[in-house]
Structure formats: C-alpha cells, structure tokens
C-alpha cells in the first residue's frame, strides 16, 4: 500500500492499495451488499459523520499506514514525537505551498512576479490542523493524553519553526485573532432599538 494525496481535500492523504482498482481506495470505499457504499450508509447512526470526523478518520488511517510501512514497522505504543516529525517531513513531498529558500530573490515576497525552483511544502496551517486531528484521534483510540506523541514538545516546536520560517519566506504573517471583549451590562431586548 502507498499514501497518496486525497482527491477531495488538497491537504489530505489517503492510503491506497495498489492491488485495488484505481477508483477504489482503502478508506471508506467498501461496497455493502445491495450496491451501497458502507461509508455512506450505516444502520447504527442516523446522521452522517461530520466533515471534520471524516477527515480525522482519514488522517488517522494514513498515520497508521505510515507506521505499518515504516522500516522497521512500528506499533502505536512505540510511536514517539520523533516519529511524528518523520511523518510530517514525509508529507512535505505532497505539499502545494511554495516556500522560498533564503537564497531565492523572491524570499519574503507574498506574490512573486515569476516562477522559481523553490520547493512546494505543506502549509503550516494544514500541518497544525492535521496534528490537532491526530491528537484527538489518538485519545479516541484509547491513548493516554500524557503519552500522546502528537502533543510532544518537539512537535510543538517544529510547528512553531515551520510557521515562523514560512511567514518570512512567503511574506505572510500568522497572527492570532484577538477575541472581542465581552460586553458589559445587559443586552438589549430582541427587537428593541
């Protein structure tokens, strides 16, 4: 099996079994008796999983596939923050965000006037969201919060370095949105102006 970018979401990756037909992937594409897809019809839950839950499941399956393909193969219990960093670096080859090298004449320009040979990488926001989903999935699959490799200090530091470097290289600032201060006093009654 191999990992390939997901077709529905540019920042996602799905594991594909090369022995299966090109139109069917290994995640959520089994066909139930009667011709309906088991990913879309379920008798146990009346509502379909949210987009977030589907993405989290795909990300988890991709990470587990990465561990199985690792040399030597790793179990989830043996996984550490270092393995998570390997996984994030592996995903960079599927990135779609141009990140300029410091030697590039377009370093720091948000809209370069011409193409350059700088590499495509995963955008910091995509990696940050991915780690958030994987961190939640780890605990949903029985992992203890204190042993969560996705919450390791090394992973947090790596994400901060990626954010800061991409901000400089792309001329984009990543600033936290400030929360609005809470209103003091009573709110006006509905319909009253």
TrEMBL record:
One of its GO terms (molecular function) is DNA binding. InterPro entries: ALOG, ALOG_dom. Residues 21-50 have a biased composition (Low complexity). It is found in: Nucleus. The keyword Transcription regulation applies. GO terms for cellular component: nucleus. Residues 1-54, 170-193 are annotated as: Disordered. Residues 1-20 have a biased composition (Polar residues). One of its GO terms (biological process) is response to light stimulus. Residues 51-178 form the ALOG domain. Keywords: Developmental protein, DNA-binding, Nucleus, Transcription, Transcription regulation. The keyword DNA-binding applies. Belongs to the plant homeotic and developmental regulators ALOG protein family. This is Protein LIGHT-DEPENDENT SHORT HYPOCOTYLS 1. It comes from Punica granatum.
